[in-house]
Each structure stands twice: as C-alpha cells, then as structure tokens.
Protein 1
Amino acid sequence: MNLPPIVRWATGIRWQWKVFIPVIAVLLLSLAAIAEVVYKLEVPNPHWVILGALAAAVLLCFILLSVLLVLVEQPLEDLMCTIARVRRDDLAARVEFAKRTDDIGKLGRQFNEMIEQLEHNRIVIEELHRRDMGRAEHLATLGELAAGLAHEIRNPLAGIAGVVDVMAKELPPNSPSRAVLGDVQNEVLRIQSILNDLLSYARPRPPTFHPADLNTTIEQAILMARQQVRTRPVKVLFTPNTSMPPVCHDPALLQQVVLNLVMNGIQAITGEGKVEVAIAREDPNVLITVKDTGKGISPDALSKIFKPFFTTRKEGTGLGLSLASGIVQSHGGTIEALSILGQGTQFRIQMPIVRPKSGS
C-alpha cells in the first residue's frame, strides 16, 4: 500500500519521540502564551518568570520520561530480549513484567502463557514424531520380512499347484477325491492372493501417470467384479460420466482400488443388493463414489479400516484398503468411508484431474 511521505516518515520514528514531540510542542506553545501574558501584564522581572516556567516544563518532561521508562521502556526491552531467547529455541524464557497488576502485566502473563503452550506443543510433537518414526521403522521391517517370506513361499506353492493340477488330470472322472482337489486348488489361489497383497504392500509399484479416460478405467474394474458375482443376486451398477475430461492417473493402480472397493461392497451384502459406482467433476478434482447396500461397518471399526492388517472379515488379509489408501495418496488424493450399520457403506475418493507439477 502506498503511504504519503509524511506517514512513512512518522512510522519510522521511535515511540519515545512520538510521545515527546506532541508534549514538547504543547509546552513550547504554553511557554509562548505565558511569555505573551507576562509581557502584556508588565510583570516585574519577566525573564525570571519565563525561566521558571521553562524549568518547570523541563522537570515535567523529566518526570514523564522517568515514568515512561519504568512503565513502557523496560517491559519492551524485557520483551525483545525474551523473544530473542525464544528464537534461539530457549522456550524456558519468560518476561519479568508479568508480575505487574496493570494492563502491561496482563500482556506479559498472556505472552508467558503463549510460550508455555509452545513448549507443551513442542513436547507433544516430539513425542508423536518419535512414535511415528518407531512405527515407520517397525512397518519397514515387517515389510521386508513379508517380502522375503512371500518370495520364499511362492516357489514351493507354485510346485504344489502344479502337482495338484497333474493329480486332477490323472484322477478318474468319478473319483471322490476330485472335490477335495478343487478345495485345495481354491486354497492355493487364496494363498497366492494373500502373497500378492503382501508383496504389493511391502514393495508398492510407483505409479505411472498419464491423462486417460477415467470411465474406461472404472468400467474395466466393474467388468472384472461382475465376472465374480454372476451366481449371486448382487447388481454392480456404473453410469459413465461423458462430460469428464481426461484424468491424470495410473489406470492399472486405480482400477485395483475400484475393484477392491467394489468387491468389499459385494462381500458385505448377504442376500440381494447392489453396489453403485459413480464419478463426478468437482473442479479441480474428480469424485469417485462406491456405495453398497451391505451390512455396514461399526463406528469402532470404521476408524481402523485403512490400517494395515486390520480386517472385519475372517478370510481377509487386512491389506486391501491400506493398499487402496496408499494408491490414492500417491495420486495426490484422499479416501474416506461413511457407513451406517444395516444401511451400507460409501467410499469417497477425491483426486486432482490434472496432476500438479513437481515443486509447485
């Protein structure tokens, strides 16, 4: 904002001069008025009267300066010294004038309370940081362990799957063991799925971003979900948004997220029901919603569903939603869940249509 030169000059003057300039001006005007009155009344020895008035004015200025020094100057110096100590990370610093009972003392007490709050907040932040670092190291160790175990298990598991396939081909068509082999094959596939989730969580693939049709990405996930529920009375509905511009995303990873959410919705439905997927443009973001008519999630569990290894299903690994959350975050987006017991669950994904440039 452009200020007049006189205002800019005044803002650069120390507060002491701002106080004394008006006082001195008033005193000078008063002395001039006294001198004029003295000379008009022809008072004897007018010079002594004027000198006495001048001495009284100087004494008044001295008293005023002393009072201001005690009331204002010393607290200001104390405040500036304390602020300098706080800048040097000395949060034990406090102002001494907080003991006063006037408004300046109240200001000092409020300043000290602010520093105490800063000190408390720093302690809390350091403790949270220490816990987060410990948790991050713990999860990193678990991730490496999970990756190693997954690699060690996958090779013999592939051998088991091959042996089971051979046995299935050699068994007679009417052999009762065929049903058992089918169960074994299903369990092998389930273990392979768990291992894949473990590997994806331990060593996630970095996303490859490029503008693509979000409708196509979601339609592919819907198609795979429909293939798995052909024998169940559950409808998976999706109406493409033809006004949606190309969205910068990794189609394979986002397809994995949508498929996971849709399958969770399907598994939450015990009889007839439906899972609805929709996308909407909310500039500068896109909103993806996945809503089911399942049994819903309890409030206690709802706050934990994105944590690794937490699951409400006996057959779940507890990694699907954690992986989905990580993928959405890597896209610069957010994911949240809304649920009411007995009425279903809705997942909401918000992510930017255009990926921000790095460093912006």
Protein 2
Amino acid sequence: MNDAWDVMPLGELCDVLDHKRKPITKRDRKAGEYPYYGATGVLDHVAGYLFDEPLVLVGEDGAKWGSGENTAFAVKGKVWVNNHAHVLRPNRDKLLDRWLIYHLNHSDLTVFVSGLTVPKLNQGSLREIPVPVPPLPEQQRIVALLDEAFAGLATAKANAERNLQNAQELFESHLEGVFLEQGEGWVETRLEEVCGFQNGFAFKSKKFTPAGCPILRISNIQNGQIDAANRIVFFNPHDYLENLERYRVTKGDLLIAMSGATTGKLGFITEDLIYYLNQRVGKFEPGQHLNPRYLYYFLSTKVDENLRISAGSAQPNLSTEQIKGLLLPLPSIELQARIVESLEYLEKETQRLTKIYERKLATLEELKKSILHRAFSGEL
C-alpha cells in the first residue's frame, strides 16, 4: 500500500445502516417491482422498499470473503435488504463508493470472519476493516482506470466463456446427430439383445477393511473414467459366502452409476487393476456385434434425457430393466469403428479447445487480481 495514503477503519468512513434492514420469509413476501437483496445479490422482487439512495452492500453471512469473491456490490434506487448483507453509506467527502467496493473485493476478508458452522462477518469486525484513503482526485483517477480495465476484462471473459460453451455444444450436437441421422443398413434393437449387463453386489459397510479387494462405488465414476482416488474402500472376500467373480471388473470394462447425483455417469476402467462392483454400479458386456466405445458414445447422449429417472424416489436412480430396454440404433461393426474414430478425434479437439479457453479464463482472473494489487499498492 502507498505509504503516503491514510488508512482508516471502515467504521469511521461509512454509516452502517444495518438497523434499517428487515428480512421477509419467502412465504410472507408480496411480489412487486422492488429488488430484494441478500448477501450475494437480488433474491426476489417485492412490493415495498427500505432504502432509496446509492449504497454499498457487503455479505454478512452466506457469502464468500476471499480475495476476488465480489462480496461487496453497489445498489441504488428503491430496494429492500434482508439481514444477511451489511448496508453501508460511505462518507463521500472522503471515500468513493467504487473505491470501497474495489478495495473490499480485492482484500482477503476471511481474517475478519468468525464462526465455523455458520461463518459470519459480524458488524464489529466489519467496522475494523482497514481502508486506504488517498485524496479523492486520486481515488477518482484510479477508479476510472480500474473501470476501463475491468470492462475490457469482462468482454474478454465473456468471449472466452462463449467460445468454451460453443466448443462443448458443437461436440454434443455432432454426437447426437450421429444417432439421429441413421443411414442404410442400420437397425434398432433393444440393448439387452446385443449386450449383457451386470450390476454389483450389496457389500456391507460394516465389513469394509483397511486393505484387501477394492470396491467401486457410484462416487468413483467421473467424466468418462474411473476416479480411483475418490474414496475407494476395500473388503475381505472371505467375509462373503457368495461367489464374487461375476462382480469383478478389469481394464476396458464400461461401467455406469445407477443412483444418486451421478446417476447415468459412465466410465471405462483404464488401469491394469481388478475391482469389484457394489450394487448401484453396473457393468456392460458388449457382444461381438457391438463396439464398447460406440455404446459409450450412444449412452452419453441419453444421460440427461432418458437415464436420470427420479419419479417416485427421493433421488435419481436407474433400474436394470431400464438399461436393458434402451433402444440402440446399430450399424455394422465396421461402421461403428469408423464412427468411434471420428468421435474420438472430435472429442480430443474439443478437450484441447476447452483447456485453451479455461487457461484463458484463469489468466484473465489472475490479471484482474494483479491490476487490483497494483491499484492498492499505488502503482497505477
């Protein structure tokens, strides 16, 4: 921070208007035209308002307070604010609203947050947050530079996010088109006619052991592969009388999660290891007329539309009958191989572009933090 700048506690620079806040339960809200604000922004629109002036809101609870988390934001006009956001009126003879917002969002405020179960930036701690106070003309100059820089960064970020979404949508559109635009010689058959299916065994959690035979569960199936580092558990085969060989899976097997938040997720085993399936994970056993990768790509188009079955249950879940009864559009085994080759190439290109755009977004975020650091170090 610039040594020539004054530093003052926030409580000496702002009127804290928290006493004017008022929460309204969702049941008691009357719909209207006025924004109803909480810790992170607009939650609803209601029939009345509590404030009618430019103000700065800062999340009290239910927010994030790390550097770059945008816990502070401006409001103006007629608004209602609940008791999860602090309400600040800066002394504008000393402090610009935008300067305060930039500073708070740049700062790591977690050191002022208390509470483990429900983290909270209470009013006493809020008032103690140190705020640099350069002369108003200097604040205005730096804020103008930040506004211009951040407008450019916002445009670049929006473009990168749009390109990322377009790349992913292009692959998904092409993938769906493969199975919709069927050519000559294709047949439609029930999955069970060309592919076996075996779901796992009901291992008892009380018999899990620190080591032994590893069990794959629904949480281990992620993004087309097996996440073996994600909470693998083990069992001793001697604890079970039943022959467990049919529940064993090895490299190359295609698995599917059959319940919970990961319902319909697919994954290939890519390691030279042996696992066993619990009862909510299924294994496909393609016959000679079905390419396993072709089956994987077909099932990938069905995850959201057909496989996330939740009716009558508290969470999504799949039955063996639903899987076996899926209608599978099937060309010759040779054409399946060519389709797989084409899709794998396009998928790799999509992944390459995705990494490029994700790196660009990360770079933009780092640049944003760097600009703010320079601003509050007096280097702009």
